[in-house]
Design a protein that fits this description.
CATH architecture of the largest domain: Alpha-Beta Complex
EC number: 1.6.5.5
Pfam family, one: ADH_N
Largest sheet: 7 strands, mixed
GO molecular function, one term: NADPH binding
Bound molecules: NADPH dihydro-nicotinamide-adenine-dinucleotide phosphate
Strand content: 25-35%
Radius of gyration: 20 Å
Structural class: alpha/beta
Organism: Nostocoides australiense Ben110
CATH superfamily of the largest domain: Medium-chain alcohol dehydrogenases, catalytic domain
Order of helices and strands: EEEHEEEEEHEHEHEHEHEHEHEHE
CATH class of the largest domain: Alpha Beta
Number of strands: 16
Distance between the termini: 19 Å
Helix content: 25-40%
Protein name: Quinone oxidoreductase
Number of helices: 9
Length: 325
């Protein structure tokens, strides 16, 4: 047993509730590895958990994602060994100096790939990977609408879709964010604060509409996503940065052209260790060889985590935000 500094949520609420506290860390149990955390990722799911939208009994340690070095292993662990460089994306309670994590959830980080890049890419990178390879498998010639294209997931989606020979119609709030999407490969840019998204998406596709709309903004963009589809197109609603989409009349799918809507989650696309390693290794390999680029849009010590979440929730950020324990 030892102790560590951890970013805790003593009670549900806004970013002001966040506190750094010393918490006990038991020796790693069976199947667990103890990791010295080098960098931790800031994600929207942390916000939902802090607010109590995804309920967790308080107090709890925040954070799902990070990277670091294995410093101890529990009984029966053979997936990793002490000294291994690892990353993880879906283990709640890891924004701390030390964390015990199920070894089966750890992804090897290649030598030469910085811990910060690995921490920044784990959750959002595997999310973009499953969205373009598995939820809707993008084919050459496909046209995709990507909302919040300068955000963490958005920047990766733009690059992965164009790498597959797809065309991206990007939305974002303002010219600076749209310029990021354009540099990464988007061919049509829509400022959704001032433009009619569906009309612009149709104009960019000779009136036909898009094959797929990747929508992590949710409440404010869902109707436009549906209205942008070509017949038999798909809305992939993967988040609700602006709020959750209200209940939905299925008849609207018919009116939209026999459309499909899915609401996927990363956990359901990491069902086996093989699936985790496939997605994690492909993302890390692409980062290591430079075919995928990742913007770290800000980095804060644990004590200043509230500022990181304020930036994310306040639409001030681009790319990925990190905490350093
Ligand atoms: P981003 O970096 O994309 O930040 C969110 C962006 O959404 C903002 O920068 C902003 O961009 C846009 N936005 C539009 N309206 C709002 C609003 N009212 N409040 C806040 N932001 C708004 O975040 P992430 O990349 O971390 O996450 C993007 C989405 O993906 C989230 O909904 C998240 O929950 C989801 N997600 C889903 C996963 C899954 O498996 N289903 C896994 C990981 C993330 P702009 O200024 O350009 O409008």
């Amino acid at each position: 047993m030892t102790t560590t500094r951890a970013l805790t949520v003593p009670a549900n609420g806004g970013s002001a509730v966040l506190a750094v506290q010393h918490v006990d860390v038991p020796d790693p149990g069976p199947g667990q590895a103890q990791v010295k955390v080098a960098a931790a990722g800031v994600n929207f799911i942390d916000v939902y958990q802090r607010q109590g939208v995804y309920p967790i009994p308080t107090p709890f340690t925040l954070g799902m994602e990070g990277a670091g070095e294995v410093v101890a292993v529990g009984e029966g662990v053979d997936d990793v060994a002490v000294g291994d460089r690892v990353a993880w994306a879906m283990h709640q309670g890891t924004s701390a100096g030390l964390a015990n994590i199920a070894a089966a959830q750890l992804i090897p980080v290649p030598d030469g790939l910085d811990f910060k890049v690995a921490a920044a890419a784990a959750l959002q990178g595997m999310t973009a990977h499953y969205l373009v390879n598995s939820t809707y498998a993008v084919q050459p010639g496909d046209v995709a609408l990507v909302h919040a294209a300068a955000g963490g997931v958005g920047q990766l989606l733009v690059q992965m879709i164009t790498a597959k020979g797809g065309t991206v119609i990007a939305t974002a709030g303002g010219p600076e964010k749209l310029a990021i999407a354009e540099r990464l490969g988007a061919s049509t840019l829509i400022d959704y604060r001032s433009e009619d998204v569906a009309a612009a998406a149709r104009a960019a596709t000779d009136g036909t509409g898009v094959h797929v709309a990747y929508d992590g903004v949710g409440k404010d963009t869902f109707d436009a996503s549906l209205a942008s589809l070509r017949p038999r197109g798909m809305v992939v609603l993967f988040g609700g940065a602006s709020g959750q989409v209200p209940p939905f009349d299925l008849q609207r799918l018919n009116a939209a052209g026999s459309a499909y809507v899915t609401r996927p989650s990363l956990a359901h696309y990491l069902l086996t260790r093989d699936e985790l390693l496939w997605r994690g290794r492909e993302v890390f390999a692409a980062l290591a060889d430079g075919s995928l680029e990742l913007e770290v849009g800000g980095e804060w010590p644990l004590e200043e985590a509230a500022a990181a979440y304020d930036a994310l929730e306040g639409r001030q950020s681009t790319g990925k935000l990190l905490l350093t324990p």
